[in-house]
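Fig. S4 source data, part A: sequence.
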Amino acid sequence: MKKLVVLTGAGISAESGIKTFRDADGLWEGYDVMDVASPEGYYRNPELVLDFYNQRRRQLKQVQPNSAHMALADLEQDFDVQIITQNVDNLHEKAGSSNVLHLHGELLKVSSVANPDDVRDWENDLFTSDTDENGYALRPHIVWFGEEVPALEEAVFLTHQADVVIVIGTSLQVYPAAGLVSYARQDVPVFYVDPKPAPLSGLPNPLEVIPMSATLGMQVVRERLKNLI
């Protein structure tokens, strides 16, 4: 069974009603991203940051996977599928995808400020009074600006193993995730789905750009993949 690696970004979840990370002017849901998505912002005003993610967590409970998420899960019938996502939502998992690597953390998890490896499932609101067993605060399990991406090394390895790569719903402008596609072997076909695709200059792979939304573009990709099973 061929290995299919899928790199996904905010565009795939946008069609489920989750706003993209930066809709305009460096704002995220009306907040300056550095106030709610940086270690400095957290230590300056932890109540604001926790409230922001509490709102996102509540919103997540109100949305469902769309047909693009479902299509990727269905591909597991014919391919060994690995999702590598920049998204912090759980819509891939809810759609039924078995193997999902979250580059930027997960909204439904928290971690200890004293031990990043102490990660816990968390579905409700998080408050400054919530601590680990040693009294250290719990924070959203999100990779903020200026922090390392712990899953990046695994993502590079998985991309290099791919027989087919799909890039969907990401502008490929946010590093280090943007550089992942360059780790695909040169003979590996790449399908790039985005309504406003960024130029992928210098990519030696066979490339098909599909300038469509995630839900429509995945219909095209599924047809193309029938020839690669």
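Fig. S4 source data, part B ends here. DSSP finds eight helices and eleven strands in the chain.
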